[in-house]
Design a protein that fits this description.
With 335 residues, this protein is an alpha+beta fold. Helix content is 33%, strand content 25%. Strand 8 and strand 9 form a beta hairpin.
Length: 335
Amino acid sequence: MKMLYHETGSTWAPYNLAMEEALTETVRPDYGGCFLLWQNSPAVIIGRHQNAVGEVNLPELARRGITLVRRMTGGGAVYHDLGNLNFSFILPQEEGLEMRRLLQPIMDYLAKRGLQVGMEGRNDLSITGVGKFSGLASRRLPGKYQLHGTIMHEVDLGVLEHVLLVDPEKYKNKGVASVKARVANLRPFLPIDLAELWAGLKAAYGAEAAAIPEKTRQRAQRLAEDKYSQDSWNIGQGPRADIFLKKRFPFGSLELHLETSRNKISAAKITGDFLTPSNTDDQIAVEELAEALVSLPADDAESWGRAWARFELARAFHGQVDEAEVRGWLAAALA
């Protein structure tokens, strides 16, 4: 079946993220899926596993009146404003469904306009030799696949740099000093306005325009009010830690927050900008890794590494996962 094309009709970030979830709930094997283009008023969108306090300048967000929303997919924090165009694909799961195949019409459209672009790193689209203009994230559910991303057309990079707290380890091997130095707007290289870009990408997919069912809109509104606009979801209770460990791996940053009591680990939480291979099962896998450390000696890191030896770490972290390296890092954490 042909994909349907939808527009949310809103620039309120909680509603737009809620709409993605509501549409994902409706996907069926006999449904061709949908393609959305949408925008947010100024907002910071953080990944499913991120620690908001450590990734975002929350006082600066409050001062500027910028919304914070946590999405359902993994990955890192991104800044949205009305100079940014967002896209989403919500599809039934297909054998061999790949991110690159879904993104090819975007890359072909920009190539026809004279821009050489390609996929880079874990989850970026970049202008060759310039920098990334799109961050991507995806999740797989039983019978369903969601992919979404940003397209930076004329984003205020000054605001972006002030509101995101970027780990310098992420860029130290890339020859840049900040997130601002690594990203690029399309506008200086593609002299068209955002409306023309929007129309061009819509046409590139040839999806059939359709209204979002009222029942789905009502579901999205409830999710926006009850979940995506609530601090309990977006910020949560920041992880406490008597022991804090952090390392950047090829699959992303991994942060471990350990509470201790009577020389035992009493609670553990894992955060980071890593991606997960799917969603529900791998969220459980991340939680299982944390739970495996509870009750272990707080002064015996070697036992921590042994505890993770019985897990398939690639089930929890998507990308280039060297399991021996991760377990070795954990086992030597107190050295």
